[in-house]
Amino acid sequence: MAPLPLVVGVDGSEPALLAVDWAVDEAARHHLALRLVHASPWAAHESAVPPSGGPPSARAAAGRVLAAAAGRAHRRDPRIEVSTAVLAEEAARALLNEAGDAAFLVLGSRGRGPLRGLLLGSVGLTVAARAHCPVIVVRGDPAGLAGGHGRILLGAGDPGTSGEAVRFAFREAEARGCALDAVRAWRCPAYESLDHPATTGAPERRYEERASALLDAVLREAVAAHPGVRVRRATVEGPASKVLVLRSAAADLAVVGARRHRGHAGLQLGRAAHTLLHHAQCPVAVVPEVPRPA
Q1: Percentage of residues in the chain with pLDDT exceeding 90?
Q2: Residue 67 is part of a domain; what is its CATH number?
Q3: Which InterPro entries does UniProt cross-reference here (predicted)?
């Protein structure tokens, strides 16, 4: 059975074209085909051939967007197998449907929609929060986009809720031959320090030791499965969202998990993932932890 392709949503915008560049390099690392898709709900109601002298149809315009993206992908790496498709439905719904047959989805940080002034477009946020496959939002500085830092940043959650994100991060580090920075943030409630003024530092040490033990538990299986990956563990005091955004400046990819609840229609993103999607200085991978059927 052939591996699933890497699916990229394109709309002709500059962020989407940067996502194509990033996805081509990623497809080469993992020996995957590339599927470029463009969503156009109007395409289902129009002919591919516009009336004589009239404006181009939505399907024809979508075809040009895809042709430009495919040409860019081929120029970047002609070895990658590229296919294209016009999806005749709303963008977020189309991409969520694609997630079922994708190794993962890749999106630009902003698109051409009416909300393009936001830090992250509404389509990207919706897809990252609901997809049942990993979603990578391509953003950040040139060094991170080019993979120049030589490290993957993993925001480690709790055992049992972040296994997929951990495995994804280790596979990425192995494919790239780079280091993996595994970070667990912790905080000591202020009232504990105030309640025990005579034991200054003791509550903090307890919380840090607990964070370190949880980090070791989260990483244990992946470390054994990927002995060649260089892992640098860190427990850092502070809000996870702030800690990870700061450390993203020295990473090529930030990886975080997201719990998925079956039958839940709302956005399913934790605070750290939501903040990274808007403010990270490198591409961000949101990897869902989907509960298995009972």
Answers
A1: 68
A2: 3.40.50.620
A3: Rossmann-like_a/b/a_fold, Universal_stress_UspA, UspA
Together in a domain, 113 and 219: no
| Domain CATH code at residue 232 | 3.40.50.12370
pTM over the 0.90 mark: no
Token readout for 157 is: 């959650």
Largest CA distance in the chain: 86
Nearest to 23 by CA among 147, 170, 177, 179: 147
Question: What does the mean pLDDT of the chain come to?
Answer: 86
12 pLDDT more than 80: yes
The contacts of residue 114 (CB under 8 Å, 6+ apart) are none
The b-or-e profile of 256-291 (16+ CB within 10 A means b, else e) is bbbbbeeeeeeebbbebbbbbbbbbbbbbbbbbbee
Question: Does residue 261 have a pLDDT over 80?
Answer: no
Q: What is the pLDDT of residue 40?
A: 86
What residue numbers bound the domain in which 147 lies?
139-294
Question: What is the DSSP secondary-structure string of 105-142?
Answer: EEEES--SSTTTTSSS-HHHHHHHHH-SS-EEEE-S-H
Which residues does 97 contact at the CB level (< 8 Å), separation at least 6? 87, 89
Q: Does 111 lie in the same domain as 168?
A: no
Domain boundary among 106, 138, 170: 138
